[in-house]
Design brief:
Length: 240
């Protein structure tokens, strides 16, 4: 364990833990949009900026990527931090003016409007949480970040090739701003991204008749694990 100080409070943290984790462990609030426990930290949104000082030297770092150290002094709410976070929130507000998540967080951080020109990116903040989960957890890499600069966006290959997608919905589940949406109606699951919408067939339970899971996801699992051919004929509720 190492001992550090956050906002004047001495706290202990596991060696190797990040400052953000240590703060959360002790109920110290640091805003963030792109941190998720299922994937390693990435530092995309940069809202988790904190000020660290060591041996009299101060600097701003992203707390999700900065490891705790013995004797480290951390401030999470100085004027410098607040100013930087406000600027970041203004940029996010300009990028996602319709997002309730961004609007609420902006208010919490003292920002009620943006000085930057409004753009509409379908609520996507480019945190890449969806692509990381798709690649690192689901293991299919069906989506990626494409293009550069202001054209940067999340996309399936060539904007219309969803062959690799198994319709699991993990990307929609982790998206912090609701930029990816999932809707199940009847025998169809629709996954909608800011620049594309794809429909997938749902499998029907042989017992209760409910459409219960994407057929592509079931085929994907069946291809990975040795299962009886009728294993997915029943939904989870109708299993013994
Ligand atoms: S729904 Fe498709 S794109 Fe989203 S995580 Fe699953 S496989 Fe990847």
């Amino acid at each position: 364990m190492v001992t550090l100080t956050i906002n004047g409070q001495e706290v202990q943290a596991e060696e190797g833990a990040m400052v953000l984790d240590a703060a959360r462990e002790h109920n110290i609030y640091i805003p963030t949009l792109c941190a998720h426990e299922s994937v390693p930290p990435y530092g995309a949104c940069r809202l988790c900026l904190v000020e660290v000082s060591r041996n009299g030297r101060q600097r701003l770092v992203t707390s999700c990527l900065y490891p705790v150290e013995e004797g480290l002094v951390v401030k999470t709410d100085s004027e410098t931090i607040a100013g930087n976070r406000k600027m970041l929130m203004e940029l996010l507000l300009a990028r996602c003016p319709e997002s309730n998540v961004i609007q609420d967080l902006a208010k919490r951080l003292g920002v009620d409007k943006t000085r930057f020109p409004l753009e509409d990116h379908g609520n996507c903040i480019l945190c890449a949480l969806c692509t990381r989960v798709c690649e690192e957890i689901v293991d299919v890499s069906a989506i990626s970040l494409v293009n550069r600069g202001v054209q940067r966006e999340i996309a399936i290959p060539f904007y219309d090739n969803a062959d690799a997608c198994i319709a699991c919905g993990s990307c929609a589940y982790v998206c912090p701003t609701g930029a990816i949406k999932l809707e199940d109606i009847g025998d169809t699951r629709t996954i909608t991204m800011p620049n594309n919408s794809t429909e997938f067939k749902l499998a029907k339970c042989n017992v209760c008749g409910r459409y219960w899971a994407p057929q592509k996801q079931l085929d994907y699992i069946a291809g990975k694990v040795d299962l009886p051919s009728d294993f997915f004929d029943r939904c989870l509720d109708c299993r013994d």
